[in-house]
């Protein structure tokens, strides 16, 4: 298909010379999931080369964090992957707790798990909804999924007052205890959610257009995925059964009973199915956590400003987009010496070019949607 | 696989970098806010003719926003567009990604210097009359990231802003209040000279 | 559970194959010379099955840079940390591991962009988050920000 500088198209009456053309997509474009830019070289409609360009949302969080105390950096972590703020907060809080040797009470651990799994459901709702936007189902699945997301955002607002960037976790626990109406509302939501996921499957999973546009498109083989440090649903969609909650359990995930869905081929359809199944498993985890939730404190007292002893710590968790890690270096003062974020979306983008070369433009859009990027994390 | 490209892509990188540096050097002072309409309204107690009233009513309920969504505030815009808050009630659900078809540029999120030439180009591509809403603390002043080496301290350095909607992120109701403020301005637009 | 491998044992195994490559080890990290980094990485990938590169980090310690590699073996579920030092502050250079793990691609470009460390052998060593021709490397400690406590603006 790709034969160099152009082809000669011949018919009985004439011969045409063609030439590859470079087209710019983004940074302002409805389907690039944020300010992501691609410079694509086409031969007709077929992609010869794709160069991803980002940095349009590079705010210098790692540098700014070195000038603020550890607690002042918590809101910055919200704004990384802004669709999964609770998970980012949790990863950062765990990294600082490892650095400073702080224990977390039981009730706080359970609350953290409930919040993290609700966040996973919410993030996957947007991820799957946006994927369907890219496939051409204009807004219908997205608006259906947003209906459930609003219920989750109501739960979060009940707990910490914010809908999008929560700043809820603290070193040694969480900032506030759950209000009284939280558990009954959560129970109602958890009872209804599997019915809603079935409704989405009924509408979309066997739909002809979805199958035609996603089966066999954007294939990522398992060995290439591991070599490219891909993580999260993208890795599991390629058939690699790797999830940090099972393979390297953190917090109290070893107490819960849940499965890890994997794909087979590694195409767009597999990644979509992995996300939907993960939503079901998250509902299972939240139900178990809710039943086992103990009484007690929600926060260990830590000194302010927190001055961890000199040293370093690396902690990674299974965020909705992949493996999110924080590497902190402390020099004994109240401000971090080095604040490094291992961003899953950035590393998942490594394989975008290899997945789409030789395919057509529309397939590139759908493949990008299935990787589910969030530019706040790619650029930091 | 060897591909003979028709252009040298690194030349594009250099041209774009020069545009960014030029814009950084030129954007040292903010554009003045176009607030003439507020003072006139208070001073003159303006009465509109029936025709102007009708035209203003029609214009303000069919403003088409252009989606310029760098960061987190984008999801509050999407929440405002979704079924719960629904700004379609105000005639604004027609979100046009193409600036040629839009009246209102809704900047929701942090704008960096690398993105600034694109922002200015999209503003320039919009046909008159056009308005700009700066949504969120980052668009108003740089927000939590002010002082960073790559963040524009407020988009009013690059485009003139009509309505500022504060919050981090502002609730969808806050955004709708911003829209209603803009609609009052749009309704009175015909009477005032545009700078 | 991902077991962190005993770094002294790993250092010993590396030392048997590649003498002089390892300069030391502590409880979690193996320190290697930057010239032998690529050989050590290849040994770890081929002989000890470290097929997954978790992340690459660089830290600026004022008189030198440290580049830290977190590695994991998905097959056997263990991990190790490699650390190399770069003393030349004027033009720091470290071999690139892109030929072994493609996941290093964007991470090395970002370290070049923000810290100024050049990775030799990288096919596309250019800035990734900032624009071409930007002066300076922001994450270095001598690049000052215009914020309280940030020193003078650059």
Summarize the structure.
Chain A is α+β, with helices and mostly antiparallel strands.
The proportion of strand residues of chain C reads 25-35%
Radius of gyration of chain C: 17 Å
Largest sheet of chain A, if any? 3 strands, antiparallel
Computed structural class of chain C: alpha/beta
Instruction: Tell me the strand order in the biggest sheet of chain A.
Output: 3-4-5
| Chain pair with largest interface | A-B, 44 and 41 residues
Largest sheet of chain C: 6 strands, mixed
Shape type of chain C: globular
The CA-CA distance between the termini of chain A, in Å, is 37 Å
Any overview of this molecule?
The complex is a heterotrimer of chains A (380), B (195) and C (154). Chain A has helices at residues 61-65, 74-78, 85-100, 106-135, 140-160, 182-204, 208-214, 222-227, 233-237, 244-247, 268-292, 344-348, 352-356, 361-371, 375-379, and strands at 8-10, 15-17, 21-25, 37-43, 46-53, 169-170, 173-174, 311-319, 322-330, 338-342. Chain A has 380 residues and is of the alpha+beta class. In chain A, the strands form 4 sheets. Chain A has a 3-stranded antiparallel beta sheet with strand order 3-4-5. The radius of gyration of chain A is 22 Å and the shape is globular. The relative contact order of chain A is 0.19. Residues 1-5 of chain A have low confidence and may be disordered. Chain B has 195 residues and is of the alpha/beta class. Chain B is built from 7 helices and 4 strands. Chain B has helices at 9-26, 36-44, 50-60, 73-81, 116-125, 137-141, 172-187, and strands at 65-68, 104-108, 131-135, 163-165. Chain B has a 4-stranded parallel beta sheet with strand order 1-2-3-4. In chain B, helix 3 (50-60) packs antiparallel against helix 7 (172-187) and helix 4 crosses helix 7. The longest helix of chain B is centred in the N-terminal third of the chain and has 18 residues, at 9-26. The model of chain B has no long low-confidence stretch (mean pLDDT 82). Chain C has helices at residues 7-17, 37-47, 104-115; strands at residues 3-4, 22-25, 29-32, 52-60, 65-73, 78-86, 93-95, 118-120. In chain C, strands 1, 2, 3, 4, 5 and 6 form a 6-stranded mixed beta sheet that branches. Chain C has 154 residues and is of the alpha/beta class. The mean pLDDT of chain C is 85. Chain C has 3 helices and 8 strands. Chains in contact: A-B, A-C, B-C. At the B-C interface, helix 1 of B face loops of C.
């Amino acid at each position: 298909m790709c034969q160099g500088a152009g082809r000669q198209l011949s018919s009985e009456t004439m011969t045409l010379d063609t030439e590859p053309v470079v087209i710019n997509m983004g940074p302002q474009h409805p389907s690039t999931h944020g300010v992501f830019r691609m410079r694509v070289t086409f031969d007709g409609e077929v992609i010869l080369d794709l160069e991803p360009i980002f940095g349009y949302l590079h705010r210098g969080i790692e540098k700014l964090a070195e000038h603020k105390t550890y607690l002042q950096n918590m809101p910055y972590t919200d704004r990384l992957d802004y669709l999964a703020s609770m998970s980012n907060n949790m990863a950062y809080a765990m990294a600082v707790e490892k650095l400073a040797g702080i224990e977390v009470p039981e009730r706080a651990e359970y609350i953290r798990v409930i919040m993290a799994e609700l966040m996973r459901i919410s993030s996957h709702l947007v991820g799957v909804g946006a994927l369907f936007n890219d496939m051409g189902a204009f807004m219908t699945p997205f608006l259906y999924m947003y209906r459930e997301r609003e219920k989750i955002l109501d739960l979060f607002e009940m707990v910490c007052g914010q809908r999008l960037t929560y700043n809820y976790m603290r070193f040694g626990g969480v900032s506030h205890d759950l209000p009284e109406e939280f558990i009954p509302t959560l129970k109602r939501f958890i009872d209804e959610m599997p019915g809603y996921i079935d409704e989405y499957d009924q509408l979309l999973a066997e739909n002809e257009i979805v199958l035609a546009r996603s089966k066999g498109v954007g294939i990522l083989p398992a060995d290439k995925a591991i070599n490219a440090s891909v993580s999260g649903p993208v890795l599991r969609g390629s058939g690699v059964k790797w999830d940090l909650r099972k393979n390297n359990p953190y917090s109290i995930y070893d107490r819960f009973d849940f499965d890890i869905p994997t794909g087979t081929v590694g195409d767009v359809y597999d990644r979509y199915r992995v996300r939907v199944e993960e939503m079901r498993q998250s509902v299972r985890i939240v139900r178990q956590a809710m039943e086992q939730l103990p009484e007690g404190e929600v926060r260990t007292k830590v000194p302010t400003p927190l001055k961890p002893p000199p040293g370093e710590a690396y902690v990674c968790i299974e965020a909705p987009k992949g493996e999110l890690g924080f590497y902190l270096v402390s020099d004994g003062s109240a401000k971090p010496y080095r604040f490094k974020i291992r961003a899953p979306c950035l590393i998942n983008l490594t394989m975008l070019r290899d997945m789409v070369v030789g395919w057509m433009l529309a397939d590139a859009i759908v493949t990008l949607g299935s990787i589910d990027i969030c530019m706040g994390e790619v650029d930091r | 696989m060897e591909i003979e490209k028709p252009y040298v892509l690194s030349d594009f990188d250099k041209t774009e970098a020069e545009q960014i540096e030029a814009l950084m050097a030129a954007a040292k002072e903010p554009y003045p806010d176009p607030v003439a309409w507020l003072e006139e309204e208070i001073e003159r107690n303006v009465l509109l003719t029936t025709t102007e009233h009708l035209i203003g009513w029609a214009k303000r309920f069919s403003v088409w926003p252009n989606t310029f969504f760098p960061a987190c505030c984008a999801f509050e815009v999407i929440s405002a567009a979704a079924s719960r808050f629904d700004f379609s009630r105000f005639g604004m659900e027609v979100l046009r990604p193409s600036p040629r078809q839009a009246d209102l540029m809704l900047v929701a999120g942090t704008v960096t210097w690398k993105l600034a030439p694109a922002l200015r180009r999209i503003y320039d591509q919009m046909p008159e009359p056009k308005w700009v809403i700066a949504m969120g603390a980052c668009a108003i002043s740089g927000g939590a990231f002010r002082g960073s080496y790559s963040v524009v301290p407020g988009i009013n350095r690059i485009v003139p802003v009509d309505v500022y909607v504060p919050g981090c992120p502002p609730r969808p109701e806050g955004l709708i209040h911003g829209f209603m403020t803009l609609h009052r301005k749009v309704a009175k637009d015909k009477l005032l000279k545009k700078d | 559970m991902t077991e962190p491998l005993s770094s002294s044992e790993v250092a010993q195994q590396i030392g048997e194959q590649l003498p002089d490559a390892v300069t030391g080890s502590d409880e979690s990290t193996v320190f290697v010379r930057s010239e032998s980094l690529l050989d050590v990485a290849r040994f770890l990938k081929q002989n000890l099955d470290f097929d997954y590169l978790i992340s690459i980090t660089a830290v600026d310690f004022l008189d030198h840079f440290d580049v830290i590699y977190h590695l994991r073996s998905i097959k056997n579920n263990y991990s190790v940390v490699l650390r190399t030092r770069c003393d030349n502050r004027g033009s720091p250079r470290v071999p690139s591991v892109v030929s072994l793990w493609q996941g290093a691609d964007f991470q090395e470009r970002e370290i070049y962009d923000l810290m100024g460390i050049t990775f030799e052998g990288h096919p596309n060593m250019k800035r990734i988050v900032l624009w071409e021709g930007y002066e300076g490397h922001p994450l270095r400690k001598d690049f000052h920000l215009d914020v309280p406590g940030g020193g003078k603006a650059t």
